[in-house]
Specification:
Layout lengths: L1 H148 L3 H49 L10 E5 L4 H7 L4 H10 L2 E3 L6 E5 L3 H17 L4 H30 L6 H9 L4 E2 L2 E2 H18 L4 H10 L14 H11 L4 H9 L10 H14 L6 H18 L4 E7 L4 E6 L6 H18 L7 E5 L10
Parallel strand pairs: 7-8
Antiparallel strand pairs: 1-3, 2-3, 4-5, 6-7
Helix pairs in contact: 2-8, 4-6, 5-6, 6-7, 8-9, 8-12, 9-11, 9-12, 10-11, 11-12
Family: Belongs to the RNase Y family.
Organism: Emticicia soli
Keywords: Cell membrane, Coiled coil, Endonuclease, Hydrolase, Membrane, Nuclease, RNA-binding
Length: 521
Amino acid sequence: MSDIITMLLTDLVALAIGFFAGRALIKKTFQTKEAEAEVRANEVLRNAQQSAENLKKDKILEAKEHFLKLKAEFDEEANKRKNIIIQNEQKVKQMQQQAAQMLEQNKRRENELDTLQHKLNEQVEVANKRKEEAERMLSQQVEQLEKIANLTAEQAKQQLIDALKGEAETKASSYIKQTIEEAKLTATKESKKIIIETIQRTASEQAIENCVSVFNIESDEVKGKIIGREGRNIRALEAATGVEVIVDDTPEAIVISSFDPVRREIARLSLHRLVQDGRIHPARIEEVVGKTKKDIENEIVEIGERTVIDLGIHGLHPELIRMIGRMRFRSSYGQNLLQHSREVAKMCATMAAELGLNAKLAKRAGLLHDIGKVWHEEQELPHALLGMELAKKYKEHPEVINAIGAHHDEIEMTSMISPIVQVCDAISGSRPGARREMMESYVQRLRDLEDLALSFNGVEKCYAIQAGRELRVIVDSENVNDEIASKMSFDISQRIEKEMQYPGQIKVTVIREMRSVAYAK
């Protein structure tokens, strides 16, 4: 037991010795490292101080360089400003010298003016004295004359005036009489000369508007496609356009007949597109006709624009330009209205130039004089007054407005352009072969025939074809049944018999077509 205790004590003593020895060793090591760290810190501190000192020196040098640079720039700027100031001082000195010279010149001129004024005053005094002396001598002479003639100065003056007045009236009357006689002799000659020269310088061709158009085709095989099965294609085309399509034995040609040039043109263009496309059936015909009608409206505007450009007329309202284009498809007594208006415009400009008037205004009035004939709404006014109202609406020149309204004597003429337009309108319409009055009455009868049928309820479209021998009436299938359609044809024929005059007989055809359309989606 004692051995074990001895061993334990020995181990404890060894452990204690080792603990204290290790502690001493650790302390010594720590002190050594602490000394090394202090040495290193001192070295770092010295290095830092050295770096700071070097950096300080560098910054000082940089600051000095910057200061020297700024100083040099400042000195340069100061020198520039100094030079500018010196230049300005020199300019001021020069201006002062010039001002002093000008003052001296002004003083010299003032002295010269004073001298001249003094001389002028002296001359005025001399002139006044001479005037007073002359007036005194004149009054003495007048007194002597009054004593000799036993008349006062006023009485003598009045007698002289009366004598001169009588002589002047006699000479003036003779001169006026002579001038009037010469004017009578030359006026007719000069007016004829101006009119003849105007007509010669306006050599436009006269084309009578017909009621048919010829559509040329490449071969007679196309005729079969245009006719369609049992003529359905032709019927669809006639119903959509309101024309009569005549397919006869004429080789490679189809005749389109209608009194309305717009309908004929729509039918002709539609046929051209259908033949080019190759698909000809009723639905396609209606589609092409609808597109063609829109294209015709655009073409009307283009025709109006080309016309005003060709004539050199500017500033027209777009609606007036559209109506000018519409003239292309309107005739007056068989004479194309656009050609007639262009001719009148050119003659008006020529005649106005010969007379020394405003040729541009005259040309403008000549082009627009029949604009009332193409207004799309029904009006009770004569076309001249309607055209005048349209010109007022679109702010045309007052002289142009008066010329339009007065070219058929509906209103009083207030400018020299008005009789020129009236004369040129008469010249254009009275040329041999220019117009056919029968044509105008024929077209008017067909229009009245269509208007009569359109006055019935339920009528959608109405077309007079075959020179007015047939009236085709297309009704609304939803509002008009078969019985009403049958009765409508009878009623229309009775009204035509009572209200209209016509040769032969008129066939009234009422067409009621029922369509049912659905779409598969």
